Amino acid sequence: MRGEVRRYEEKDREAVLDLAPRLMEGVARWRSPDGVRAAVTGWVVEAVERAAEPGRFVYVAEVDGVVAGFVSGEERTHWSGDQELYVGELVVSTDHEGEGVGRALIDTVTDDARRLGVTTITLDTGTANTSARGFYRSLGFEEEDVKLTRVLS
Predict the structure, then answer these.
(1) Are strands 83-92 and 121-123 parallel, antiparallel or unpaired?
(2) What does pTM read for this prediction?
(3) Where are the domains of the chain?
(4) Which CATH number fits domain 4-138: 3.40.630.30, 3.40.50.150, 3.40.50.720, 3.40.50.1950?
(5) How many CB atoms lie within 10 A of CB 86?
C-alpha cells in the first residue's frame, strides 16, 4: 500500500461514515436494505465515538491524503474464555481495492494483537460476500461458525 495506516482522528469522521454502506455487501437477500443500512451506519458511528476507549481501536488507511479504508474493533473474551481481538468493521473504498489497503489494516490489527499477547483475531462477514471471504482466507483466517436462518413466508 502506498500510504499510511494511523489511528482514527475526528477529522476522519465523514470519510469513515461515507464508507459504511460497503458493509451491506454480502448480506442475505431477505434482509431489509433500509434496516441493514441503518445497522451498519450505527456500527460505524459507535466505533468512531468509542475509538478512544480502552480496549477499542479504529485505524484509517490514508492514501494521497484521502481515507482509503478503515478497521475498527475491540479486545474481548470469546465464549470459550480466550482473549481475542474482534474486528467489527473493515472497509476499503472501491477506488483503492486491490492496492493492499485491507491487508495493511489487518496487519496493524495483527501487530496490536501480538503486542497485547492475544493469539486470535476474529471477525464476521456475510456468506454471500465471497470476495471478502476469499480475502480473509488469503490472510490466514479460517471459517469457524455457521449461522443458519429459515425464512418463513
Answers:
(1) parallel
(2) 0.94
(3) 4-138
(4) 3.40.630.30
(5) 17
For residue 67, give Cα distances in angstroms to 1, 72, 138.
13, 14, 24
Hey, what amino acid is at 105? Answer: L
pLDDT for the residue 126? 87
Q: What's residue 39's pLDDT? A: 96
Q: What is the pLDDT of residues 66-83, one digit of tens each?
A: 999 999 999 999 999 999
- Grid coordinates representing 140 are 490466514
Low-confidence ranges of the chain (pLDDT < 50): none
Q: Helix (H, G, I), strand (E, B), or coil: what is residue 137?
A: helix
Q: Look at the chain and count its residues.
A: 153
CA dist., res. 79 & res. 123, Å (int): 14
